[in-house]
Each structure stands twice: as C-alpha cells, then as structure tokens.
Amino acid sequence: MKQLLLCLILLSLGSCKKDDPDALPAATQVGANMGGYLLDGLAVRATGRPGYNGLLSSVNSIAPVAGEFLNDSMLCVQLCSIQNEQRYRLTLFVRYHGLGVYQFHEITPQFGGASLSALRNHAFLYQDCSSYGCAVKSYITDSLHTGTLTITYINGSPGIVAGLFEFMAYDAYNKEIIKVSSGRFDLSE
C-alpha cells in the first residue's frame, strides 16, 4: 500500500509542467488590458501593482497592462506584476508600421532612458522584490540576446493593440540571461 501511494505521488509530480502557457490569460484581441508570459518557464500574469492603500485605482498604482502609441510610428507596452513578493515590469518598445513581426536585435538604451530618436526595438524586464535586501535585476535585449514581437491586431479608432512576444535578455550587472516565452498582451490605450 505504501509503495502504491509513493508511486501515485511520483506520477502526479512528474505530470506537473513547468512550461505551462495555459496558466496565462488567453491571447485575445478585444482591448481586455490583460497579458502574461513565461519567465524561464514560470507563468507571470500581468496583475498590476496596488498603490498606497492597496487598491489598483489608488495613488501610485500601476495598471496590469499599459501602453501608448508615440508619434504614430512607435509602440510602447508595459506588463506589471507582483508574484510571491517578486515585482516585474516588462517593457516592449517597437517602431511599427502595422501588423507583423518585429525583431529585438540591436543594442539600445531602454525606453525612458534616452530620446525617442535614439531608441531601437527592444524588450526590457526589471525585477525586484518587496522585501528589504533583495537583488534588483535589469534584463535587456541586444545584438546577442534577441527576440520578436508579433503585432497581431491593431484598431486605432478605439486604440486597441494585441500581440505575442518572446525573447532572451541579459543583465550585465548580475551576468544572467533569462528567457521570456509564450508572451501575449491585449491593450486598450
């Protein structure tokens, strides 16, 4: 009986999948302001960050998915999440010209760190935690750590954009590489 119980436990543990895109929100195109991705195989859903009083609608809060069209030729999307005391802010920046696949493959400053004319397509992941003393990590794509963003839907009239993304990125300070896969977002500006 003990052996049977042990076998059942081992089988159930073996059937758990680390890389489970089903743990992410659906890839929709309706302006649902939702998104998520797998970070080294672990599901990260865009949850936003509560503000000072613990509400998503309060001062200093951050929406789960936010973004904007800039100068009719640039798109910036941010997915923010808190999971198990880890805070994540993923930024996607592309110079776009409609539906299609855009490459992250050039060295560039991150969005917000340079003039718009100096920016190239890139993905950036900032990670820290809510407890004191944890390491801050900043990963960015470059010519060696690349990826793609596929814009699958744009409707400029209500300001809806949806897409899929994946990339490898590097933290030069901590000398770490991450893999983001099965990424998706559905944004209403």
Which short descriptors sum up this protein?
46% strand; 7% helix; disordered N terminus; five-stranded antiparallel β-sheet; single chain; Porin; 189 residues; globular; 11 strands; mainly beta; six-stranded antiparallel β-sheet
Give a description of the structure.
The chain has one helix at about 1-15, and strands at about 35-40, 40-45, 65-70, 75-85, 85-95, 100-105, 120-130, 135-140, 145-155, 160-170, 175-189. By secondary structure, the protein is mainly beta. The chain is built from one helix and eleven strands; from the N terminus they run αβββββββββββ. A hairpin with a 4-residue loop joins strand 10 (about 160-170) and strand 11. About 25% of the residues are buried. The strands form two sheets. Strands 2-1-11-10-9-6 form a six-stranded antiparallel β-sheet, with no helix packed on it. It has a five-stranded antiparallel β-sheet with strand order 3-4-5-7-8, with no helix packed on it. The protein has a single domain (about 20-189), classed as Porin (Beta Barrel), CATH 2.40.160.
- State the helicity in percent bands: under 10%
Which percent band covers the strand fraction?
over 45%
Strand line-up in the sheet with most strands: 2-1-11-10-9-6
Which sheet architecture does the biggest sheet show? Answer: 6 strands, antiparallel
Tell me the number of helical segments per DSSP (H or I, 4 or more residues long): 1
The topology string of helices and strands comes to HEEEEEEEEEEE
What's the CATH topology label? Porin
Q: Compute the number of structural domains.
A: 1
The rounded Rg comes to 18 Å
The CATH architecture can be given as Beta Barrel
Which outline best applies? globular
Measured between the Cα atoms of the first and last residue, the distance is: 58 Å
CATH class: Mainly Beta
| Extended strand count | 11
Label the structural class.
mainly beta
- Which stretches of 5+ consecutive residues score pLDDT under 50? 1-17
Could you tell me the mean pLDDT?
83
